[in-house]
C-alpha cells in the first residue's frame, strides 16, 4: 500500500479549490451553450419544402416570393406579438434583432376550408428561424405551422 501526504497552507488550499470550482463552472457553461434551440435546415428549397411537409402542408414546391426582411433591433408591440407566436412553436427571434433574414413565401393548397393560404419561412444563415401560416385575404388570419390558432 502506498500513502502520499501533502502539506498545504490554507491559502494554497483555497486557491486550489477556487481553480477546481472555476473549471467546473466553465465546463457547465460550455455544456449549456451547446443546448441552444435546434437548427432547422433551410439552406435550400428542398429542405424548406420538407420542413412544411413535416407539418402536413403541401403545395407548389417553388416559393411565390423571396424577400429580404430586416428584423428590428428593438421590437415594438407588433413584433412582440409575432415573437410570442414564434416562441409558441419553438422559435425565438430575439437573438436575430437587427439582422436581415430571407422570407420565403409558399402557397399552401391543403389548409382546411381555406382557398388562399401561404406559409412564410424566415431563414437566417441557412437555418429556419421562424415563420407562420397566414391568409392574405382582407378577413385573413395568422397561425403557427401546426395550423392551430394562436392566442
**Span between N and C termini?**
69 Å
Low-confidence runs of at least 5 consecutive residues:
30-37
Q: What percentage of residues falls in helices of 4 or more residues?
A: 25-40%
Helices and strands, in order, run as: HEHEHEEEE
Biggest pleated-sheet summary: 6 strands, antiparallel
Q: How many individual β-strands? A: 6
Mean pLDDT: 83
Structural class: alpha+beta
Our count of helices gives 3
Shape: elongated
Report the sheet-strand fraction. Answer: 15-25%
The value of Rg in angstroms is 24 Å
Summarize the structure in words.
The chain has helices at residues 10-33, 45-53, 77-88, and strands spanning 40-41, 65-70, 100-107, 118-124, 127-134, 142-143. Strands 1, 2, 3, 4, 5 and 6 form a six-stranded antiparallel beta sheet that branches. It contains three helices and six strands; from the N terminus they run H-E-H-E-H-E-E-E-E. It is α+β, with helices and mostly antiparallel strands and 151 residues long.
Précis, in short:
The protein has 151 residues and is of the alpha+beta class. It has three helices and six strands, in the order αβαβαββββ.
Which labels suit this protein?
single chain; 151 residues; alpha+beta; six-stranded antiparallel sheet
SSE topology sketch:
Elements: H1 10-33, E1 40-41, H2 45-53, E2 65-70, H3 77-88, E3 100-107, E4 118-124, E5 127-134, E6 142-143
Antiparallel strand pairs: 1-5, 2-3, 3-4, 4-5, 5-6
